TrEMBL record:
Gfo/Idh/MocA-like oxidoreductase bacterial type C-terminal domain residues: 207-281
Pfam families xrefs: GFO_IDH_MocA, GFO_IDH_MocA_C2
EC number: 1.1.1.18
Keywords: Oxidoreductase
InterPro entries: Gfo/Idh/MocA-like_OxRdtase_N, Gfo/Idh/MocA_oxidrdct_glycsds, Gfo/Idh/MocA_OxRdtase_bact_C, NAD(P)-bd_dom_sf, TAT_signal
Top enzyme category: oxidoreductase
PROSITE patterns, A to Z: TAT
Gene source species: Stieleria magnilauensis
The protein's name: Inositol 2-dehydrogenase
SUPFAM superfamilies the record matches: Glyceraldehyde-3-phosphate dehydrogenase-like, C-terminal domain, NAD(P)-binding Rossmann-fold domains
Stretches assigned to the Gfo/Idh/MocA-like oxidoreductase N-terminal domain: 40-156
GO MF annotations in UniProt: inositol 2-dehydrogenase (NAD+) activity
Length: 447
């Protein structure tokens, strides 16, 4: 954890010969301001980035120093620039990082495929990082993010913010206090209908790039393609394999999070997927992923089956949900943990319920307060407390989710995973998807 110098101690060490000029980027970036304030930069200020920025800036100790967005229109850079008037403005995150001696932490709220390149570059400069979920676009990137956070000793948080909500914290508490006993199996699902493009080929032709959009910078590490209105930027990039991670990638780091946290899961050892044949470039809108994990202190058996279902209107098979009554209306998205003493329903997002009801009357269930996921990171950057979705946790969670997205490419084929070796040991073609090629000149800085 970086130490927290006062202005006086900083000046004293500078006078002793360790001047600002002599400091390398890592040290320089850790020197907090005169009043112990945290200078932050936001990359991707529209969409979810807007609430990330406001969420972190809600900390009384934070100064918004710089804003970066490839789109200068009102909904993107515009509104942030209007609100944080003294912040420097950029369209290229690389230039922002070149100028970042007064920035201690970087928020990365871009589309999925740019999370790792930006976050890794920031961590190499010693910056703390708050990054959107899923942490990365590939499994290899997730491993690199975890390693970089440890190597550069920076404070990190993935923005699966529901982890800090009372609902998910209560569910984790219920498992940890043994209310449902050891867990025998888990079913997690997202039954909502995605609104982004799916199961379609790449559109033909091109549209003029609006003046306010820097399309080349948007494409970043991905190979170049023509701009098409409302097809990629904003939001709809989710449906394209080159940029997003499909429905599992979009929701897995939320919905599987209380499962991971409560059962202290690490990495699956194998998985099999049921899904229709994937088109070359877009994601599918239905998949079932059967993961097998090594058992933990919270599981009933030496291995644990976790099943993920996503398709519009899908719910897990009722007969597999233990004590959940047949007439109970399951939430559209969530998880059921089937335990030896009861079944825990964790809706996405509402307070959890335990069955059988007569054993667990609703009014007697515990409630754990929520915490602020955003200011938790800002506080932790300044040495106060710790984050709960740091990359040591978020890395393996994201790897698991993204292994499922590899499985979607090879339906019906069991994939055996050796997490230590970062290798799908029984399927050379699937192994190729653990990483990906990068656009020339945009290769990330690996550990
Ligand atoms: N935690 C959550 O609940 C939640 C909710 C929504 C989205 N997300 C995540 O947030 C991220 C962004 O999703 P979104 O829906 O806001 O996408 P979006 O496309 O609507 O917004 C992304 C923003 O980043 C900007 N941007 C894109 N590339 C950039 C680059 N290279 N440099 C600087 N700015 C860039 C865009 O102009 C836009 O302002 C995704 O990773 C997504 O999974 C998380």
């Amino acid at each position: 954890m970086p130490s927290f110098p006062t202005r006086r101690s900083f000046l004293k060490s500078a006078a002793a010969g360790s001047t600002a000029i002599g400091l390398n980027a890592l040290h320089y970036s850790r020197v907090y301001g005169a009043n112990r304030r945290l200078g932050i930069a936001s990359v991707g200020t529209g969409g979810k980035g807007w609430s990330d920025l406001n969420g972190v800036a809600a900390s009384p100790d934070v100064d918004v120093i710089a804003l970066c967005d490839i789109d200068s229109s009102a909904k993107h850079l515009g509104q942030a620039a209007q609100k944080y008037r003294s912040a420097r403005q950029y369209d290229d995150w690389r230039k922002l990082l070149d100028d970042s001696s007064d920035i201690h932490g970087v928020l990365v709220s871009t589309p999925d495929f740019m999370h790792a390149p930006i976050s890794l570059a920031a961590m190499h400069l010693g910056k703390h990082v708050f990054c959107q979920k899923p942490l990365t676009h590939t499994v290899h990137e997730a491993r690199q993010m975890r390693k970089a956070a440890a190597k550069f000793n920076v404070t990190t948080q993935m923005c699966n913010q529901i982890q800090s909500h009372s609902a998910y914290r209560t569910a984790v508490h219920m498992v940890h206090t043994g209310m449902i006993g050891k867990v025998k199996e888990v079913h997690s699902w997202q039954g909502g209908q995605p609104s982004w493009p799916r199961n379609i080929p790449r559109p033909k032709g091109s549209d003029p790039v609006p003046e306010h959009v820097r399309w080349d910078l948007w494409q970043g590490v991905a190979s170049e393609r023509p701009f098409k209105l409302e097809m990629y930027h904003p939001f709809n990039w989710r449906g394209w394999q080159a940029y997003g991670t499909g429905q599992l990638g979009d929701f897995g780091c939320h919905i599987l999070d209380p499962v991971f946290k409560s059962l202290k899961l690490t990495s699956p050892t194998k998985l099999t997927v049921e899904a229709p044949t994937l088109l070359a470039e877009s994601w599918t809108d239905r998949a079932t992923v059967y993961y097998e994990f090594p058992g933990t202190e919270y599981t009933a058996e030496p291995t644990l089956r976790v099943t993920w279902y996503d398709a519009a209107g899908v719910l897990p098979p009722r007969e597999k949900l233990g004590d959940v009554p047949a007439n109970y209306q399951l939430p559209k998205a969530g998880s059921v943990l089937v335990g030896e003493k009861g079944s825990l329903v964790i809706p996405h997002v509402a307070m959890p319920t335990i069955f059988p009801e007569e054993k667990f009357p609703a009014k007697e269930l515990p409630v754990i307060d929520g915490v602020d996921h955003y200011t938790q990171w800002a506080d932790a950057c300044m040495g106060n407390g710790k984050t709960t979705s740091h990359f040591d946790y978020a890395g393996p969670l994201t790897e698991t989710v993204l292994l499922g997205t590899i499985g979607i490419r090879f339906p019906g084929q069991e994939l055996a995973w050796d997490a230590d070796a970062l290798t799908i040991t029984n399927h050379a073609q699937a192994q190729e998807w653990v990483t990906k090629p990068y656009r020339k000149g945009w290769e990330p800085t690996w550990i």
